[in-house]
Amino acid sequence: MEIRSPKTVGEFKQYYELRWRLLRKPWKQPKGSEKDDKEDEAFHIIAKEKDKIIGVGRLHFNSEDEAQVRYMAVDKESQGKGVGSRILKELEGIAEKNGAKRIVLNARESAIEFYKKNNYKIIKKGHTLFGSIRHYKMSKSLRINQKI
Ligand SMILES: CC(C)(COP(=O)(O)OP(=O)(O)OC[C@H]1O[C@@H](n2cnc3c(N)ncnc32)[C@H](O)[C@@H]1OP(=O)(O)O)[C@@H](O)C(=O)NCCC(=O)NCCS
Fold it and tell me: Is there a domain that residue 141 lies in?
């Protein structure tokens, strides 16, 4: 399995398609709703096995010190095998290399355990998406600076 940035137009297409299929389609959200205005400046990571993208994740900066992870998704049949953790580690490495002191994210309730296993802590209750998905703000300090 490869963990890296998408390179070709085709890979970017699969990348956004997986995001939409896992994070938007079940709530009847239209194509296009899987993107925001930070795509051009963000770092994108895929997990690719043979010709198929099986996992995705994105990182952008909120400030010099703070990076944010968004849109983590792993295909159903590949979940629970460490793919999400490998994508997250790659994003954390990028954050660290680019000077971030901490990473924040808004976790769906169903993904809290996944982030806890990866050493994120709940900071506070967050927004509710599509009227039903409760989010929790979580954070992790990076090695270079342990104070949040
Ligand atoms: C959340 C998600 C990205 C995790 O990816 P993954 O590849 O399944 O996670 P991993 O296999 O790396 O899991 C790491 C650990 O977290 C645990 N874990 C992962 N997802 C979990 C869940 N939903 N509930 C409880 N534990 C979970 C795993 O069991 C594993 O524990 P272990 O180290 O003791 O074996 C993936 O399940 C997913 O795409 N879910 C649907 C979309 C989603 O909710 N995205 C997050 C939006 S905030």
Answer: no
**What CATH code is carried by the domain that includes residue 67?**
3.40.630.30
Run of H or E residues at 9: helix 9-23
**27-86 per-position pLDDT tens digit:** 999 999 999 999 999 999 999 999 999 999 999 999 999 999 999 999 999 999 999 999
| Ordered DSSP codes for 17-48 | HHHHHHHTGGGTPPTTTT--TTTTTSEEEEEE
Instruction: Verify whether ligand 1 is closer than 6 Å to residue 113 (CB atom).
Output: yes
Query: Distance between CA atoms of 12 and 136, rounded to whole angstroms?
Result: 28
Rounded Cα gap, residues 40 and 121, in angstroms: 28
CA of 103 to the centre of ligand 1 (A): 18
**Total count of residues recorded for the chain:** 148
CA of 62 to the centre of ligand 1 (A): 25
117 CA to centre of ligand 1 in angstroms: 9
Count of the separate structural domains present in the chain: 1
Beta bridge partners of 49: 52
